[in-house]
Each structure stands twice: as structure tokens, then as C-alpha cells.
Amino acid sequence: MKHLFSSLALVFIFVAFSSFNQTDVWEELEAFHQAIALTFHPAEDGDFEPVKNDSDELVEAAQKLLTAKLPVYFEKSKNQDLKNDLQTTLQKLVKQSKELHTLVESKKATDEELVTELNNLHSTYHHIEELNHKAKKN
Fold it and tell me: CA–CA separation, 94 vs 101, rounded Å?
């Protein structure tokens, strides 16, 4: 009987912990992070092929982030300014990713122009991360 109780307690703890983690992860934000990491960091080192090849993936990831259901902690937040800032910044992220993609597609962009656009996009992404962190604290 002790083993059954212990097993049930472990299952309960696992389920409770799994449920907690699911509400604490914003999958679309993680996906955008992966997309920008694969383009931004190589460009920092002078390798622009990843951004030239994958700028469309940044647009797609930004659009998915914009239309994604917000994590539970954002939904529960009573801070409307935080939510408004998030919505505005997500729209900015989509706009900037489209501008970067258009620049890449033009095939006339200099490396300096690409770096500037990537830096802007990266800064906007980090602002979203800051808002996300604030929402988790509320």
C-alpha cells in the first residue's frame, strides 16, 4: 500500500509540474528566438548567408508570434500597459522582419544594411523578452 501511495504521489507531482511548465513556456517566442539566433549570430561574425537564405523564416516566425495565443501569465496580467506594449512590439517585429526580407530579396543590400536591420530586429526581440519576463513576475 505504501508503494501504491508513493507511486500515486509521484504521478501527481509529475502531472502538476508538467502543467506548470506548459503555462510557463511561450513556444512561438522560443521559435522566433531560434530563427533569429541562426541568422543574427553568424552575421555578427561576417557570415550573411544564413540571413540571405532564411529571412523568410524570420517573417514566418514573427507572424506566428503575433497571432499566437498569449501564455496564461500574460492573459492573467492586469497590467494593460504591458499588454499594449507587447502588441505594439509584436507588430513592429513583423514589420521589421518583412523589411529585412525585402532588403534581402532586393539582392542590392550591403552587409552594413543587413547588419543594421538585423540589429533593429534583434533589439525588438529582446524588448519582447523583457515584456515576457515582466509578465511572468506579475
Answer: 11
CATH fold, domain 26-137, is Four Helix Bundle (Hemerythrin (Met), subunit A) (1.20.120)
Give the Cα separation of 100 and 126 in Å (integer). 17
Q: How many CA atoms lie within 13 A of 54 on its CB side?
A: 20
Can you give the C-alpha Rg of the chain in angstroms?
Answer: 19
Q: What angle do CA 26, 100, 94 make, to 5 degrees?
A: 35
pTM for the whole thing?
Answer: 0.82
Number of residues that make up the chain: 138
Residue-level pLDDT at 60: 98
Q: Is the pLDDT of residue 15 over 90?
A: no
